[in-house]
Amino acid sequence: MAAATDTGPRVDTGSRLIHLALAVGGIGAVATGELAEDAGFGASLHTWLGITLAAALALRILWGVIGPLHARFSYWVPYSTARLKLAGEDLLGLLALKLPRRPAHQGLAGLVQSFGLAVFAWMALTGLPLYFFGAPGEDEGGVIGVLEELHEAGEGLAWAYLALHVGAVVVHSLAGHDEWQDMFFMRRQQNAGER
């Protein structure tokens, strides 16, 4: 599939579905984190939402390698000086109350998305061993106890990422940048001159 153009969809169907699964699993797992202490339904709900998140994350990683150009990590992850410079320019622009207008995941958006994927990976990598080797509602010692503390520490980072991501969508929407509609409603891009 081709990258975003002014006449075609900005986001492919695979990316939309993976984003939906990440959103449901991620928001759900973070929101039910306190329920995990209970050994009943709350722990089961949190566990299954976490497993949904881990599966969606695995798909996103695969899609980041073999998916369309705009979804590939090689296209947008800010690992080079030039890409980090774009993120810095965007941050300086925000300080001057100017919203960045770049292709999907470029600049500061790429840095935020990388942070989100790293946080979700942290939560999955610390949560899955808790599911297999821990017991809900019990204070664990040893390696499982350390993983439990690391998992709980990641909860604050997950909330911070969700606040950043949702806040950015709201601010961009208020400024007339309706990229969120591309994700949810498969709206086709308007001609650049019409914006």
Characterization of this structure:
- The protein is mainly α and 195 residues long.
- It has one domain (13-189): Fumarate Reductase Cytochrome B subunit.
- It has seven helices and no strands.
- The protein has helices at residues 13-31, 41-66, 73-76, 81-95, 108-133, 142-174, 179-185.
- The radius of gyration is 18 Å and the shape is elongated.
In percent terms, what proportion of residues is strand? Answer: under 5%
CATH architecture: Up-down Bundle
Kindly report how far apart the N and C termini lie. Answer: 25 Å
Overall 3D form: elongated
- List segments where confidence is low: pLDDT < 50 over at least 5 consecutive residues: 1-9, 188-195
Total number of strands:
0
- Report helical residue fraction: 55-70%
Please count the helical segments: 7
CATH topology: Fumarate Reductase Cytochrome B subunit
What structural class do the secondary elements suggest? mainly alpha
Q: How many discrete domains? A: 1
Largest sheet: none
Mean pLDDT: 83
Assembly status: single chain
Rounded radius of gyration (Å)? 18 Å
Q: Class in CATH?
A: Mainly Alpha
Order of helices and strands: HHHHHHH
Descriptive tags:
single chain, 195 residues, mainly alpha, Fumarate Reductase Cytochrome B subunit, 67% helix, disordered N terminus, disordered C terminus
